[in-house]
Design brief:
This protein folds into 3 domains: about 70 residues, Histidine-containing Protein, Chain: A (2-Layer Sandwich), CATH 3.30.1340.30; about 70 residues, Histidine-containing Protein, Chain: A (2-Layer Sandwich), CATH 3.30.1340.30; about 70 residues, 2-Layer Sandwich (GMP Synthetase, Chain A, domain 3). The protein is built from 6 helices and 10 strands. It is elongated and about 80 Å long.
């Protein structure tokens, strides 16, 4: 007698073997000879073909068929479809180190985890995931790796201020504690303050910026 794992594997292999069934979106579980098919197929004919293929496998005593027909024009909002679209989008976006980020989707809620080198990569991943249709929300657990010394981070931020034609570097104070940055001083407009904060976020290893700059 086959084990549940053996039966599950045999049914999955049969679904992949049948030419008129797209097994990519079909899930298979087996317990005591009862096989459950779940997921999505592109037509009613595929649904019937999948059921017949599973029933033809030796050891299958009963089928619990939970397949849903999802036409090509229907919105792709199942967890697996949403996760696949996010992974594809990440791989196309040069700002996102997709190989360093893990994606989990549960009940259309996305959780991102992993470690990146720059905060802009973290923000790009969060923004991209939130733009996928069907996503209800995003929990961002991505960490920014701190590989630079406190002195190096501070100097990079000050150098960025010095290159700016808008930010008056002499009027802004920068305190760095590892990847935590505190900005102080006075500027003449909210735009200058925004650019200063953006420059601080641009340094490698920065994971938190406290902006205490005063707009005069």
């Amino acid at each position: 007698m086959k084990t549940d794992n053996q039966l599950q594997r045999d049914v999955m292999d049969e679904l992949e073997w049948v030419p008129n069934v797209d097994a990519a979106q079909i899930g298979v579980t087996a317990k005591g000879g009862v096989v459950t098919l779940s997921g999505f197929v592109g037509s009613y004919a595929q649904k019937m073909a999948a059921e017949h293929a599973a029933a033809s496998v030796l050891g299958v005593q009963a089928i619990a068929e939970e397949l849903q027909v999802r036409f090509a024009s229907d919105p792709k909002t199942s967890d697996s479809e949403v996760a696949g679209r996010i992974v594809d989008l990440f791989s196309w976006n040069v700002s996102i180190p997709h190989e360093m980020i893990a994606v989990k989707v549960e009940d259309n809620w996305v959780t991102l985890s992993g470690t990146v080198e720059w905060n802009y990569q973290k923000e790009a991943a969060h923004t991209a995931a939130g733009h996928i249709g069907g996503v209800l929300g995003v929990t961002d657990l991505i960490a920014v790796r701190n590989t630079s010394s406190t002195v190096d981070i501070r100097e990079r931020i000050l150098a960025a201020f010095g290159r700016s034609s808008v930010v008056d570097a002499s009027a802004i104070h920068v305190t760095a504690d590892s990847g935590r940055i505190t900005l102080g001083g006075n500027v003449h407009g909210s735009h200058e303050r925004t650019l200063a904060e953006r420059a601080a976020w641009g340094a490698p290893g920065v994971y938190y910026v406290e902006d205490n700059i005063v707009v005069l």
